[in-house]
Protein backbone atom coordinates (compact mmCIF):
# COMPACT_ATOMS: atom_id res chain seq x y z
CA UNK A 1 0.00 0.00 0.00
CA UNK A 2 1.30 3.46 -0.88
CA UNK A 3 -0.20 6.42 0.89
CA UNK A 4 1.13 9.72 -0.43
CA UNK A 5 1.08 12.92 1.55
CA UNK A 6 -0.22 15.64 -0.77
CA UNK A 7 -0.76 18.95 1.04
CA UNK A 8 -1.85 20.69 4.24
CA UNK A 9 -3.92 23.76 5.00
CA UNK A 10 -5.84 25.48 7.80
CA UNK A 11 -9.41 24.32 8.38
CA UNK A 12 -11.47 26.65 10.57
CA UNK A 13 -14.51 24.92 12.15
CA UNK A 14 -17.02 25.99 14.81
CA UNK A 15 -14.88 24.20 17.43
CA UNK A 16 -11.28 25.01 16.50
CA UNK A 17 -9.03 25.79 13.57
CA UNK A 18 -7.54 22.45 12.62
CA UNK A 19 -4.73 21.62 10.23
CA UNK A 20 -6.09 19.55 7.36
CA UNK A 21 -3.69 17.03 5.79
CA UNK A 22 -4.56 15.42 2.46
CA UNK A 23 -3.39 11.91 1.56
CA UNK A 24 -3.80 9.84 -1.58
CA UNK A 25 -4.06 6.05 -1.59
CA UNK A 26 -2.32 5.23 -4.86
CA UNK A 27 -3.77 1.71 -5.02
CA UNK A 28 -7.42 2.79 -4.87
CA UNK A 29 -7.18 6.40 -6.04
CA UNK A 30 -9.15 7.43 -2.95
CA UNK A 31 -8.23 10.51 -1.01
CA UNK A 32 -8.28 10.58 2.77
CA UNK A 33 -7.96 13.38 5.27
CA UNK A 34 -6.44 13.90 8.69
CA UNK A 35 -7.36 16.86 10.86
CA UNK A 36 -4.89 17.66 13.60
CA UNK A 37 -4.90 20.13 16.44
CA UNK A 38 -1.96 21.06 18.63
CA UNK A 39 1.38 19.29 19.01
CA UNK A 40 0.59 15.69 18.09
CA UNK A 41 4.09 14.46 17.27
CA UNK A 42 5.55 14.62 20.78
CA UNK A 43 5.34 10.87 21.48
CA UNK A 44 2.47 11.09 23.98
CA UNK A 45 -0.81 9.28 23.17
CA UNK A 46 -3.13 11.49 21.14
CA UNK A 47 -6.91 11.79 21.52
CA UNK A 48 -8.12 10.45 18.19
CA UNK A 49 -11.08 9.48 16.07
CA UNK A 50 -10.87 7.14 13.09
CA UNK A 51 -14.05 8.05 11.24
CA UNK A 52 -15.35 6.21 8.19
CA UNK A 53 -17.16 8.30 5.60
CA UNK A 54 -20.93 8.54 5.88
CA UNK A 55 -22.04 11.15 3.36
CA UNK A 56 -25.63 10.93 4.55
CA UNK A 57 -24.83 11.37 8.23
CA UNK A 58 -21.74 13.57 8.03
CA UNK A 59 -22.93 16.01 5.35
CA UNK A 60 -26.67 15.55 4.83
CA UNK A 61 -27.83 15.54 8.48
CA UNK A 62 -29.21 11.99 8.32
CA UNK A 63 -30.70 10.70 11.54
CA UNK A 64 -30.62 7.03 10.42
CA UNK A 65 -27.22 6.51 12.01
CA UNK A 66 -25.00 8.18 14.62
CA UNK A 67 -22.10 9.13 12.32
CA UNK A 68 -22.73 12.86 12.00
CA UNK A 69 -23.25 13.24 15.73
CA UNK A 70 -20.05 11.31 16.47
CA UNK A 71 -18.07 13.38 13.97
CA UNK A 72 -19.22 16.60 15.58
CA UNK A 73 -18.67 15.35 19.13
CA UNK A 74 -15.18 14.08 18.28
CA UNK A 75 -14.12 17.44 16.84
CA UNK A 76 -15.57 19.19 19.88
CA UNK A 77 -13.70 16.92 22.31
CA UNK A 78 -10.41 17.36 20.44
CA UNK A 79 -10.94 21.13 20.58
CA UNK A 80 -11.61 20.93 24.34
CA UNK A 81 -8.42 18.90 24.81
CA UNK A 82 -6.52 21.35 22.61
CA UNK A 83 -4.74 18.44 20.95
CA UNK A 84 -5.84 15.52 18.82
CA UNK A 85 -6.36 13.92 15.44
CA UNK A 86 -9.31 12.86 13.32
CA UNK A 87 -8.72 10.53 10.39
CA UNK A 88 -11.52 10.78 7.84
CA UNK A 89 -11.40 7.59 5.79
CA UNK A 90 -13.26 7.34 2.49
CA UNK A 91 -14.81 3.95 3.07
CA UNK A 92 -18.47 4.84 2.76
CA UNK A 93 -21.14 2.43 3.93
CA UNK A 94 -18.72 0.22 5.89
CA UNK A 95 -16.83 -0.20 2.63
CA UNK A 96 -19.67 -1.04 0.21
CA UNK A 97 -19.91 2.49 -1.24
CA UNK A 98 -22.67 5.06 -1.30
CA UNK A 99 -24.93 3.53 -3.93
CA UNK A 100 -24.87 0.11 -2.31
CA UNK A 101 -25.58 1.80 1.03
CA UNK A 102 -28.71 3.32 -0.53
CA UNK A 103 -29.65 -0.19 -1.74
CA UNK A 104 -29.06 -1.43 1.82
CA UNK A 105 -31.18 1.38 3.25
CA UNK A 106 -33.98 0.40 0.85
CA UNK A 107 -33.87 -3.14 2.23
CA UNK A 108 -33.86 -1.71 5.77
CA UNK A 109 -36.91 0.38 4.89
CA UNK A 110 -38.59 -2.96 4.15
CA UNK A 111 -37.62 -4.53 7.49
CA UNK A 112 -34.05 -5.91 7.20
CA UNK A 113 -31.55 -4.81 9.82
CA UNK A 114 -28.22 -3.25 8.82
CA UNK A 115 -26.35 -6.58 8.82
CA UNK A 116 -29.09 -8.55 7.01
CA UNK A 117 -29.30 -5.82 4.35
CA UNK A 118 -25.57 -6.10 3.59
CA UNK A 119 -25.85 -9.89 3.45
CA UNK A 120 -28.87 -9.80 1.12
CA UNK A 121 -26.76 -7.68 -1.24
CA UNK A 122 -23.94 -10.24 -1.11
CA UNK A 123 -21.59 -8.29 1.13
CA UNK A 124 -20.06 -9.10 4.49
CA UNK A 125 -21.35 -6.95 7.35
CA UNK A 126 -18.22 -4.81 7.44
CA UNK A 127 -15.65 -4.51 4.63
CA UNK A 128 -13.57 -1.70 6.10
CA UNK A 129 -9.79 -1.74 6.40
CA UNK A 130 -7.67 0.21 8.80
CA UNK A 131 -4.15 -0.57 7.59
CA UNK A 132 -3.95 2.78 5.78
CA UNK A 133 -4.08 4.51 9.18
CA UNK A 134 -0.54 3.35 9.89
CA UNK A 135 1.26 5.43 7.23
CA UNK A 136 -1.11 8.37 7.81
CA UNK A 137 -0.36 8.43 11.54
CA UNK A 138 3.35 7.79 10.98
CA UNK A 139 3.51 10.80 8.67
CA UNK A 140 1.97 12.91 11.43
CA UNK A 141 4.40 11.52 14.02
CA UNK A 142 1.63 9.83 16.01
CA UNK A 143 2.44 6.48 17.61
CA UNK A 144 -0.59 5.81 19.78
CA UNK A 145 -4.17 6.96 20.20
CA UNK A 146 -6.69 7.47 22.93
CA UNK A 147 -9.31 6.24 20.52
CA UNK A 148 -12.88 7.55 20.54
CA UNK A 149 -14.99 4.57 19.45
CA UNK A 150 -17.54 2.05 20.63
CA UNK A 151 -16.31 -0.56 18.17
CA UNK A 152 -14.00 -3.21 19.65
CA UNK A 153 -13.28 -4.61 16.17
CA UNK A 154 -11.87 -1.23 15.16
CA UNK A 155 -9.59 -1.27 18.22
CA UNK A 156 -8.48 -4.81 17.36
CA UNK A 157 -7.92 -4.03 13.67
CA UNK A 158 -5.88 -0.91 14.44
CA UNK A 159 -3.82 -2.76 17.01
CA UNK A 160 -3.19 -5.59 14.53
CA UNK A 161 -2.19 -3.06 11.89
CA UNK A 162 0.38 -1.58 14.28
CA UNK A 163 -1.37 1.48 15.71
CA UNK A 164 -1.06 1.68 19.49
CA UNK A 165 -4.38 2.20 21.25
CA UNK A 166 -3.52 3.32 24.77
CA UNK A 167 -7.14 3.81 25.77
CA UNK A 168 -10.66 3.49 24.36
CA UNK A 169 -12.90 6.48 24.92
CA UNK A 170 -16.66 5.89 24.52
CA UNK A 171 -18.44 8.02 21.92
CA UNK A 172 -22.13 7.48 22.54
CA UNK A 173 -24.10 10.39 21.18
CA UNK A 174 -26.93 11.17 18.81
CA UNK A 175 -29.59 8.65 19.86
CA UNK A 176 -32.93 9.49 18.27
CA UNK A 177 -36.10 7.57 17.27
CA UNK A 178 -34.79 6.98 13.73
CA UNK A 179 -31.51 5.30 14.73
CA UNK A 180 -32.53 3.41 17.86
CA UNK A 181 -32.97 0.09 16.03
CA UNK A 182 -29.74 0.61 14.06
CA UNK A 183 -27.77 1.31 17.26
CA UNK A 184 -29.29 -1.76 18.96
CA UNK A 185 -28.26 -3.89 15.98
CA UNK A 186 -24.71 -2.53 16.13
CA UNK A 187 -24.52 -3.46 19.80
CA UNK A 188 -26.19 -6.87 19.30
CA UNK A 189 -24.65 -8.08 16.03
CA UNK A 190 -21.52 -6.01 15.45
CA UNK A 191 -20.27 -6.07 19.03
CA UNK A 192 -20.29 -2.34 19.72
CA UNK A 193 -19.71 -1.67 23.40
CA UNK A 194 -22.67 0.50 24.22
CA UNK A 195 -26.12 0.44 25.73
CA UNK A 196 -28.86 2.81 24.66
CA UNK A 197 -28.89 4.18 28.22
CA UNK A 198 -25.31 5.45 27.70
CA UNK A 199 -26.30 7.80 24.89
CA UNK A 200 -26.80 11.51 24.92
CA UNK A 201 -29.94 12.31 22.98
CA UNK A 202 -29.68 13.88 19.55
CA UNK A 203 -31.32 17.01 20.92
CA UNK A 204 -28.40 17.51 23.35
CA UNK A 205 -25.82 17.98 20.60
CA UNK A 206 -24.96 21.27 18.97
CA UNK A 207 -26.73 20.88 15.64
CA UNK A 208 -30.23 19.89 16.61
CA UNK A 209 -31.92 17.43 14.25
CA UNK A 210 -35.61 17.28 15.11
CA UNK A 211 -37.06 13.73 15.25
N1 LIG B 1 -23.59 -0.78 4.79
C1 LIG B 1 -24.07 0.09 5.67
N2 LIG B 1 -23.23 1.03 6.14
C2 LIG B 1 -23.72 1.89 7.05
C3 LIG B 1 -25.04 1.86 7.51
N3 LIG B 1 -25.22 2.86 8.41
C4 LIG B 1 -24.02 3.50 8.51
N4 LIG B 1 -23.12 2.91 7.69
C5 LIG B 1 -21.70 3.20 7.52
O1 LIG B 1 -21.06 2.74 8.68
C6 LIG B 1 -19.83 3.42 8.85
C7 LIG B 1 -19.73 3.81 10.31
O2 LIG B 1 -19.69 2.63 11.03
P1 LIG B 1 -20.36 2.40 12.43
O3 LIG B 1 -20.54 0.92 12.59
O4 LIG B 1 -21.57 3.31 12.57
O5 LIG B 1 -19.35 2.92 13.46
P2 LIG B 1 -17.86 2.46 13.69
O6 LIG B 1 -17.02 3.46 12.97
O7 LIG B 1 -17.65 1.02 13.38
O8 LIG B 1 -17.76 2.56 15.26
P3 LIG B 1 -17.64 3.86 16.13
O9 LIG B 1 -16.17 4.17 16.15
O10 LIG B 1 -18.15 3.50 17.47
O11 LIG B 1 -18.44 4.92 15.44
C8 LIG B 1 -19.84 4.58 7.87
O12 LIG B 1 -19.01 4.21 6.78
C9 LIG B 1 -21.30 4.63 7.41
O13 LIG B 1 -21.43 5.08 6.07
C10 LIG B 1 -25.89 0.85 7.00
O14 LIG B 1 -27.05 0.70 7.36
N5 LIG B 1 -25.36 -0.01 6.08
ZN1 LIG C 1 -23.83 7.05 9.13
UniProtKB/TrEMBL annotation:
Name of the protein in its database record: GTP cyclohydrolase-2
Active site per the UniProt annotation: 126 (proton acceptor), 128 (nucleophile)
Pfam families the record matches: GTP_cyclohydro2
Binding-site positions, GTP: 49-53, 70, 92-94, 114, 149, 154
Family: Belongs to the GTP cyclohydrolase II family.
Taxonomic superkingdom: Bacteria
Main function: Catalyzes the conversion of GTP to 2,5-diamino-6-ribosylamino-4(3H)-pyrimidinone 5'-phosphate (DARP), formate and pyrophosphate.
Residues that bind Zn(2+): 54, 65, 67
Gene Ontology cellular-component annotations: cytosol
Catalytic activity: GTP + 4 H2O = 2,5-diamino-6-hydroxy-4-(5-phosphoribosylamino)-pyrimidine + formate + 2 phosphate + 3 H(+)
Metabolic or biological pathway: Cofactor biosynthesis; riboflavin biosynthesis; 5-amino-6-(D-ribitylamino)uracil from GTP: step 1/4
Transmembrane intervals: none
GO biological process: riboflavin biosynthetic process
Cofactor list: Zn(2+)
GO molecular function terms noted in the UniProt entry: GTP binding; GTP cyclohydrolase II activity; zinc ion binding
Amino acid sequence: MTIRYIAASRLPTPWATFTMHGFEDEATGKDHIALTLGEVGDGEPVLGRVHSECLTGDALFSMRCDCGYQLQEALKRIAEEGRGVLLYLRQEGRGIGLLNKIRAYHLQDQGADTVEANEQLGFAADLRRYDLCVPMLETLGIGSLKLMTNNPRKVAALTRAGVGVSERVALTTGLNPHNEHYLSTKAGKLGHMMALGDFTQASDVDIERKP
